[in-house]
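Hello again, I could really use a second opinion on something today. My current little project is about how a certain protein chain folds up. You're getting the sequence in one-letter code plus the fold written as tokens. Here's the protein in full, and shout if anything looks odd to you:
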Amino acid sequence: MRIVFAENIEYTLGARDLLNGVSLELRHGDRLALVGANGSGKTTLMRLLMGELQPSSGRVHRTEGVHLELLPQDPQYSPSDTVETVLKRGFARVQAMEAELARLETSLADPEVYHRWEELHERFEAIGGYQQRARYEAVLKGLRFEGREQEKASVLSGGETRRLALGALLLSGSDALLLDEPTNHLDLEMVAWLVNFLRSFGGATVTVSHDRQFLDQVTERVAWLRKGRLRLYEGNYTAFRRERALQEEQEAREYANWLKEKERREEILEQAQRWAHSSAKHAKRLHSLEARMEQFLEETVQAPDVDDPAMRIRFPVEKKVTAERVLEGWNLQKNFGGRELFHVPGLLVRNGERIAVIGPNGAGKTTLLKVLLGLLPSDHPAGRVKTGPGVRIGYYDQRLSGFDPELTLFETLYRMLGEKAHAALGAWMFPYEAQFKQVKSLSGGERARLALLSLSLQQANLLVLDEPTNHLDLETVEALEQALLDYPGTLLLVSHDLAFLDRLATRTWHVFEGQFADYPAPPSEYLERRKTEVVPRKLERPTSRVETQHPKPPRARGRWHLEREKERLEAQIAELEAQVQTVLARANQPGLHHSEYAQIAQEQHRLEAALEQAFSRWAEVVEGLEGLA
């Protein structure tokens, strides 16, 4: 079923033709990725599909009764809005559809009524109308609002506000979800949940995202918006990139061959012109060659559609670090709201390492970085941090602080570079007229590029980057990725873009539920290992065939037995925690071979798994004791 059809639309913004002859059809079940550089018109196109904007020419046809919903970039809530009321706004739409279906069911003998019922029923099923309550519970849990339904929406943090808007969109009862950067402010677990939720959605989705792995998982077609034109490609984002590379190669080859043939014909024509006056035969040949040349030029091959010059990002290092130990920390601990975010007895960052820091939102990733950088104190009285000799740190703060909001872009860069400010801003894709915007008026993407530009001037040999890909378009993310691959220094990276981390990181820190894990491999390998890791189980006496068929009911255990087991488990937990600290201390010893480091990491994971099992059994025993009280 068709939802919306944009037919040959144009949209003019000032003196610029933002969209030029764009056509696009969306049907139920479509999974479309909308890609293009920042400013190419992606959000404008989605607003045109929504009906929020009207095209300068052309038409947008929306099937009667269908509803589209666009994820807002800056959601606003009234003082009376709660998490529950915001999430349930779409329920009225779903309930109205359900009531209309019930009304139509009384007259299904009429072919026209049956046709209307069938179309409405198809839409109702596609948007998950029969599972609306279950979907609501899934959104509460998946976006971590479970138990918070009565909280006021207006007092949520920026990231929570955005997540709430995403949840409301998913429950809106819309036939098409227009997802503008939906993974911003989602951690890896929430992104994985969103992928599964969208796969179960039967309506259409249009997704704009800088997360390439997410796009690959939720899209089946790519719409590439460039210089006002839209081109469609079958397959996900990776398939699109592969096909574009082949097309560019083919176009370049065909154009080179055409230029070569043109040059050959011009040489023959030039020679014929020199000889034309010598005889009638040569004059006639010249006339024939000119006619053939004219025909050849009419069938000209277009020059390849050269992409806009990619932003060239570089992070030069004035002085390389020679010491092996770049950054060290002891007794790094932080508590928040009565719970321990993390406690890391010892930590060592070696020269040249590339470390990804992952974990759920709120687990303490940014806090850990700030403690390591000395921007926050450790809550442990013996906590301390030490940087190696010659280490110069460059810090990219996800809040993009440190700039005077009242200054213009040019004024900001002039204080750093003097007369070179215009050239530097131009190289980072800030047009001349945009260079006089105040910092407070910059878009998210512009502020991110300003922060990266500033970072590139610092000559840092240790880069600490907290969510550097947020607000960047795919082209800029790929340029940043290449720059960091070329960077000769040491990297600490926080990001929810798994593809970005996997290409850059060789070591993973995982901060979760008050725990800290250190693994010598990229995040995907670490996460896969966590899924498949076998937790050691207590060996049991093999049961006979008779016992298997007729198992005896477990004998109830008394308080004395449970209390003895509780004491034994507490001693075991204390011993395991001491062993983990010993292993971490070994990991901080200088001169370890990679194989030794891997062996230590494996031992750490084994001990942590045993700890988790012991804690789980301890909780069961405590619950059993409470039941006997």
Q: What stands out?
A: Confidence is low (pLDDT under 50) at residues 534-556. The first strand starts at residue 2 and ends at 13. The chain is about 45% helix and 20% strand. The chain has four domains: 2-235, 248-298, 325-392+459-529, 556-628.
